[in-house]
Design goal:
Protein name: Arginine transporter
Organism: Paracoccus aerius
Structural class: mainly alpha
Strand content: under 5%
Keywords: Signal
Largest sheet: none
Helix content: over 70%
Radius of gyration: 17 Å
Order of helices and strands: HHHHHH
Number of helices: 6
Length: about 100
């Protein structure tokens, strides 16, 4: 019984870092702008987890691959895009302040 508990605890500890990675963290680490700064990317993901829905995180992560898409969303006349942009700006401000 104790053996099973130890094995289960070890499995959880070994997979925990994988659970932390989210769409923004993954996109950030792969981007040229991050320059391999994994701790910064992890911090930004932590702020995203607190401020953005999972679907908003996936959408924001796409900006790392295509920065022009961010400009398109920012300039959009769509209510949906405007609401997302407001959430994204709030997230970006918080990440900038928290992840210095």
């Amino acid at each position: 019984m104790l053996n099973r508990i130890v094995i289960a605890a070890a499995a959880i500890m070994m997979t925990a870092p994988l659970a932390v990675a989210g769409p923004i963290d993954s996109a950030c680490v792969r981007s040229d702008r991050a320059r391999g700064n994994a701790p910064l990317c992890t911090c930004i993901q932590q702020v995203a987890n607190q401020t953005l829905s999972r679907s908003d995180q996936r959408r924001a992560a796409s900006f790392f691959r295509d920065p022009h898409e961010a400009q398109e969303v920012r300039m959009s006349k769509s209510d949906r895009d405007n609401a997302f942009w407001a959430r994204y700006k709030r997230f970006a401000s918080q990440a900038e302040a928290y992840c210095r």
